[in-house]
User: Fold these one by one.
Assistant:
Number 1:
Amino acid sequence: MSYMFSELFYWLFELLRKDRPNESPGFDAYLGISLLQCMNILILFGVANFFLEFNISKNLAASSGIFLYIFITIVNFFTLFRKKSEIVNRYENLSRKRRMKGILFFWGYVLSTIVLFIIVLTNLVTIKY
């Protein structure tokens, strides 16, 4: 998996580790990154659907979304969750300036993903059911 998602995993892991140290921040971070990646793909699909006007049934849309999330989660299990100690070791000794860049990138990615997802969902996806 790319360095981008491993760094995003690290920043979410650090946030969760500070917020809830007794729970499983690695597992939660891995599921969170999977959800954000799934949202990114659904944003692209929503834009494509707007311009190409796919005629997809409600059941197919729901099952495709579930399959997509399961697929992304399985891939991330092997590329992020199982390598969490390597990822933490790679990013824990960054300079203060680099840490600030990483945190800003993380929050920019999270906020832009959520905002774009809401915009696409409310404006480009038409309800047919």
Number 2:
Amino acid sequence: MQNLELFFDGNKIADVTVNGSFSLQYNNYWRENGFAISPHLPLNESIDSNSIKYFLENLLQEGRGLEDTIAYYRASKRDVVSILKTVGVETSRALSLYLHFFNIQVLKED
């Protein structure tokens, strides 16, 4: 099992657990005061595992850049967590992931 903590603007908003399938659990404060970070990741409804996987995949670069990264690090294209663990992720604006299994916080500075 692998765990990711999801942060927005420096505040923890959710936990992602990967254990064969993906699950996302927003924390109580974010559910009451925040917003869904994607239309496919609603605050107060069940979230499909594939929606979480696709969301994480969309945080990665696309096209030739992703292909070159996968080849360089010998990562599995099908395993988004493996790619995140191996190369980290440069996310959009204030969103960041804390990778428990890698013990680093990946942030993007504007």
